[in-house]
């Protein structure tokens, strides 16, 4: 699970008008 309050390195896989899809790796 991603740690709240810490920066997690996520890759933006698709950017949309309302936001972005992020690749959370093993977190989904």
Topology:
Layout: E1 11-16, E2 19-23
Antiparallel strand pairs: 1-2
Notes on the protein architecture:
With 28 residues, this protein is mainly β. The chain has one domain. The protein is 0% helix and 39% strand. The chain has no helices and two strands. It has a two-stranded antiparallel ribbon with strand order 1-2. The chain starts with 10 loop residues before the first strand and ends in a 5-residue tail after the last strand.
Mean pLDDT: 62
Q: Specify the structural class.
A: mainly beta
Radius of gyration: 10 Å
Our count of domains comes out at: 1
Which key terms come to mind for this protein?
2 strands; 0% helix
Question: Short summary of the structure?
Answer:
The protein contains no helices and two strands.
């Amino acid at each position: 699970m991603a740690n709240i309050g810490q920066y997690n390195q996520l890759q933006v896989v698709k950017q949309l008008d309302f936001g972005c899809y992020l690749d959370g790796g093993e977190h989904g």
